[in-house]
Amino acid sequence: MKKKAAGKFQLDCSVNGARVRREIAASRTMLEFLREDLGLKGTKEGCGEGECGACLILLDGRAVNSCLMMAAQAHGREIVTIEGIKGRDGGLHPIQKTFMEEGAVQCGFCIPGIIVAAEALLRRKPDATLEDIKLELTGNLCRCTGYEKILSAVELSRDELKKKGKR
Amino acid sequence: MRPELLVRPASLADLWKALPALPRDRRYLAGGTDLMIAAGHGHAGDCWVDISGLKELKSFRETSSSIFIGSGLTIAELAEKPAVKKWLPALALCAPHYASPSLRNMATIGGNAANGSPCADGVCALLSEKAEIVLGLKGAKRKMPLHSFFLAPKRTALKKDELILGFEVPKWRHVSAYEKLGPRSYFGISKVTVCVSAEISGGLVKEAVIACASVAPVPLLARKAAEFLYGRRLDEGTVSEAAALAESEASPITDTRSEAGYRKAMVRVLASRALSKLAA
Ligand SMILES: Cc1cc2nc3c(=O)[nH]c(=O)nc-3n(C[C@H](O)[C@H](O)[C@H](O)COP(=O)(O)OP(=O)(O)OC[C@H]3O[C@@H](n4cnc5c(N)ncnc54)[C@H](O)[C@@H]3O)c2cc1C
Ligand code: FES
Ligand code: FES
Asked: In DSSP terms, which residues pair with B66 in a beta bridge?
């Protein structure tokens, strides 16, 4: 039985490749844990209700909404946040570079979530079509760019990643 | 409000052992996609029992005559299974229309039923596929037809601490159509949904099940419409008569998502679309 000392939870998980062992408040959401306990502010809170996708992270390689997840649910599992999405040289990931080059970012608030969603899709389906990309991003809202640039940036990222040695 | 106390049993046995010592007002936490929203709107228990790590609830077993789906499987996990595509076409068809891709990675099929909403997509699909629901409380197990699990809006047959272990769905050679109207093409809770599963042989309907969501206090089986189809060819006249019967069986309400009259009329439209697809 894992932990029930009033209000606390003994969490043991991996975050961006590093093992994290901590006593946390049992009532913490994953989003709060990342931002407030670990100081990883790349993951954003938009709606807090599963509607906007600004809070997406990878849980064992699958995109999930960290606003609707309790931190304790990550026990024994692997988390990757936008901070952990990197190129092979440790710098920007090809998807991030493409978003910048294509001007697919305006205020940027939705972008971490969108890049996490795109990364999850392109890992699973390196040949994703435009239709696949649109479907994958149905849970991500952007109030600035109007989506066209975002969609074409994901398509270009796909092409870039397919070139040998980019991943 | 999220509670201060959260426990995460390592196994089912561990869970049954832990319960007596926990505060009485306790809730199970699976994918959290309904419970976390409820907690944002008010009190949601004094303690959460996190069942999302329980391997026992993730089982998926196929026998010669049925498929057992563990309650802890997520919609995404289910949609990826070849046996689901083959034997549970309605469940496979509902998946793309179920919330968003990331929510489908969290939302469980058990949570969809336990939540007791008449709008639930997974429930609507499984109803049309003649699923039974399997419940467990400590050593005791019971099974009932899925439709009798729903008593009233947000009220189910679950007893205190009882868990949904899973769903047992018979293997029958059926085809399905899933027609959902939401606020947009994808990602939105249903305003009206009609799901039809049918076994058609020699051009005649051998058996049909019509399940409807969001048009009655509980997920609805349109029995008159389904019975009417028995032994018939799905021609234009049959389709329109069955669709009219389905409409007559719906008793929707007006709420924030849609309006009663519109919902009722749409049952006929969606039933007719679904049946026409099966005829094609
Ligand atoms: C933005 C958004 C969009 C959504 N869109 C859709 C949609 O399109 N279609 C749809 O059908 N639903 C939708 N939902 C609702 C929700 O995602 C589903 O109902 C989901 O399947 C619930 O499962 P969960 O594992 O997240 O349940 P949880 O939130 O973990 O639990 C829900 C309830 O069930 C109980 N429970 C969970 N598992 C069990 C069990 N095994 N035994 C007994 N009790 C249990 C919990 O105690 C709780 O009361 C949406 C939700 C959100 C936030
Ligand atoms: S903050 Fe999680 S979906 Fe909007
Ligand atoms: S860039 Fe501003 S919300 Fe998307």
From this structure: B170
Give the range of the structural domain holding residue B265, as residue numbers without chain letter.
Answer: 175-279
For atom 28 of ligand 1, which residue has the closest CA?
Answer: B32
Final residue of a structural domain among A21, A50, A84: A84
Asked whether residue B90 falls in the same domain as residue B144, the answer is yes
pLDDT at position B204: 97
Residue-wise pLDDT tens digits, B181-191: 999 989 999 99
Rounded Cα–Cα distance for residues B187 and B109 (Å): 17
Mean of per-residue pLDDT scores for chain A: 94
CATH number at residue B101: 3.30.465.10
Residue A94: pLDDT above 70? yes
3-state DSSP helix/strand/coil percent for chain A, to nearest 5?
40, 20, 45
pLDDT-above-90 percentage for chain B: 98
Residue in B52, B53, B100 nearest the CB of A139: B100
CB contact under 8 A, B5 and A26: yes
Which pLDDT value is given to residue A4?
Answer: 46
Q: What is the pLDDT of residues B80-123, one digit of tens each?
A: 999 999 999 999 999 999 999 999 999 999 999 999 999 999 99
Distance B142 CA to ligand 2 centre (A): 37
Task: Answer whether A92 contacts ligand 3 (Cβ < 6 A).
Answer: no
Residue B76 tokens read as: 């995404």
Domain that holds residue A30: 2-84
Query: Could you give the number of structural domains in chain B?
Result: 3
B166 and B61 in a common domain: yes
- Among all bound ligands, the one having the nearest atom to the CA of B99 is 1
Q: Which residue's entry shows tokens 């028995």?
A: B230
Rounded to the nearest angstrom, the minimum Cα separation between B73 and chain A is 14
**Same structural domain for residues B196 and B250?**
yes
Residue A149 shares a structural domain with residue A118: yes
Asked whether residue A89 is assigned to any structural domain, the reply reads: no
**Do B186 and A138 count as a contact with CB atoms less than 8 A apart?**
yes
Report residue A120 as tokens: 């999850």
Clarify whether residues A68 and A129 are in a common domain.
no
- Residue B29 contacts residue A68 (beta carbons within 8 Å): no
Phi/psi-derived region of residue A150, left when phi > 0, alpha when psi is between -120 and 50, beta in every other case = alpha
* Of the partner residues B18, B102, B106, the one whose CB lies closest to the CB of residue A117: B102
